[in-house]
Design a protein that fits this description.
Helices cover about 20% and strands about 30% of the residues. The protein is of the alpha+beta class.
């Protein structure tokens, strides 16, 4: 009987980390706001446009080349993530 209890305790000690690891929760967040900015038109807002552009672009014209930048901003509501959560990975 003593031997069985020892084996049971040993098995519990080795299995405990795997049980805790399998209890990971996944959270899917939806963007609440998004927009992009374009360095050519710094005062223009793009919040109502269906597409977003991002990157560094070079436009070559009659008077030479110009570089402009487009950057995307996305806002998420993170209130569904517990404050003590440990995040192992995130995908966009």
């Amino acid at each position: 009987m003593n031997r069985i209890l020892r084996y049971l305790l040993l098995a519990m000690c080795f299995c405990m980390p795997f049980v805790a690891f399998n209890q990971l929760d996944s959270v899917e967040l939806t963007a609440t706001k998004d927009t992009y900015v374009d360095s050519r038109y710094p005062t223009t807002g793009y919040g109502s446009i269906d597409t977003m552009k991002s990157g560094t672009n070079v436009v070559t014209g009659k008077f030479g080349s110009n570089i402009y930048y487009q950057r995307v901003f996305v806002e998420y509501d993170l209130s569904s993530i517990p404050s003590n959560a440990i995040i192992y990975s995130a995908d966009l």
